[in-house]
Amino acid sequence: MTTATDAAATPATTAITHIAGLVTNDPSLGEGPLGLIQDAAVVIDGDRIAWVGETSKAPATDNRVDAAGRAAIPGFVDSHSHVVFAGDRTEEFNARMSGRPYSAGGIRTTVAATRAASNNELNANVARYVMETLRQGTTTLEIKSGYGLTSEDEARALSIAAAHTDEVTFLGAHVVAPEFADDPAAYVDLVTGPMLDMCAPYARWVDVFCEKGAFDGDQARAVLTAGQRHGLIPRVHANQLSHGPGVQLAVELGAASADHCTYLTDEDIDALAHSDTVATLLPGCEFSTRSPYPDARRLLDAGVTVALSPDCNPGSSFTSSMPFCIALAVRDMGMTPDEAVWAATEGGARALRRTDVGRIAPGARADLALLDAPSHVHLAYRPGVPLVSAVWRGGTLV
Ligand code: NIG
Ligand code: FE
Residues that bind 4-imidazolone-5-propanoate, according to the entry (predicted)? Predict the structure, then answer.
């Protein structure tokens, strides 16, 4: 018998046994929507899950890791981050906590710091946040550009992001670049023309911040459809600070996800419920901007697929912690612990249109987190406690 630490030299097959409660997210493997298995074992072969079941039925393997009654969950799938940046916005946060409201304007502070940073500095920052998320159980991380806002700076951000993840998103339309403050239409022309030509080869997704103070519905449509013509799939920052056209546009264009979804009409919810567009909720934003949380209960009751993400960025939500978001979603957004854990794993995978992550099932990538707790419910029950005690990504203990 070896411990989790001994397993670092990954043999061909490894069984993790005596998992108190295993969340598989595959209802055919266990109980309920989480496919929960008690006293479970998982067999890893190379970078894939080879077998899942009860410990007593586990096949022989080259190595065994005794989970000793800890719970295990799929690695978190974080479908929304802005971690290519330099500097921070401590002063803006301080002012906000003294009563000043959040606005999109602060993004320009980070744009200036990011443009001034070297490639090495930006790359080191991304590496640091990727490692920070990994330690907290996140094994898939989407990364956006959006703090460059010139063709060169956006392409640079995307090429750095692409060195760390396959899930790269072009967000040249984060806000209008300062140089174009008097001519937003010309900035949209730049984003949909030369900037997209330079950036599309690095990205899988195209995103836009559809909001007052950023881009209106027509501008957002122009950005997303131009991205589609370059083979990118849309996702939208929608209805974060006010009611607006973002969610309806996301659904109309078949976006993978509408993110934020804080201010929703009944029509918005109905549109999401009758679409394949996931509603990705980002409660770190409402926490860090002292704003009302999105109503996850209303979305779930209407049949909308919900994902959770920390939205790690230096302005509205400077947290990389999915467990923190799970706790907020349960405490303040009407989600059950089961729903929140699902949203942070399988929900994120749906928002990225991935079937190989977000679940622990034969054939899936071997991404899982062991918790220093007997149940996944402790992620909400013990807020702020670092429960993630071991993480495998692609079969390797990290
Ligand atoms: O998702 N809403 C737009 N973008 C980020 C915030 C970026 C910033 O304030 O720097 C978000 O909240
Ligand atoms: Fe965001």
Answer: 89, 147, 174, 240, 316
Phi first, then psi: give them for residue 299, nearest 5 degrees: -65, -45
Ligand nearest to the CA of 288: 1
CA distances from 63 to 14, 60, 95, 147 (A): 5, 8, 54, 46
Residues in the chain, how many?
A: 398
Among all ligands shown, which has an atom nearest to the Cα of 313? 1
Nearest Cα neighbor of 208 from 163, 178, 245, 180 is 245
Cite the annotated binding site for Fe(3+) by residue number. 80, 82, 237, 311
Q: How far is the CA of 214 from the centre of ligand 1 (A)?
A: 11
The H or E element spanning position 161 is helix 151-162
In the predicted model, is pLDDT for residue 149 greater than 60? yes
The candidate with the shortest Cα–Cα distance to 14, out of 355, 370, 346, 359, is 370
146 alpha carbon to ligand 1 midpoint, in Å? Answer: 9
The 3-state DSSP class for residue 50 equals: strand
Alpha-carbon distance of 369 to 378, in angstroms, equals: 13
| pLDDT over threshold 60, residue 6 | no
- Best CA proximity match to 84, nearest among 160, 176, 140: 160
Question: What whole-number percentage of the chain has pLDDT above 90?
Answer: 96
- Return d(Cα 11, Cα 13) in angstroms, integer: 6
User: Which domains occur in the chain, in start order?
Assistant: 5-74+359-397 (2.30.40.10), 77-351 (3.20.20.140)
Give residues whose Cβ lies within 5 Å of ion ligand 2: 311
Strand 388-393, strand 396-397: pairing: antiparallel
Quote the pTM value.
0.96
Torsion angle defined by CA atoms of residues 83, 89, 94 and 99, in that order, rounded to the nearest 10 degrees: -80
Which ligand 1 atom is at minimum distance from the Cα of 260? 1
Q: Is the shortest distance between the CB of 310 and ligand 1 below 6 Å?
A: no
How many whole angstroms from 386 Cα to the centroid of ligand 2?
A: 24
Q: What is the per-residue pLDDT across 130-144, written as a single tens digit (0 to 9) for each?
A: 999 999 999 999 999
For 254: left if phi > 0, alpha if psi spans -120 to 50, otherwise beta; the answer is left
Question: Taking the CA of residue 180 as centre, how many other CA atoms within 13 Å lie in the half-sphere pointing to its CB?
Answer: 18
Dihedrals φ, ψ of 301, to 5°? -65, -25
Q: Which residues pair with 37 in a beta bridge?
A: 22
319 lines ligand 1 (CB under 6 A): no
pLDDT given at position 55: 98
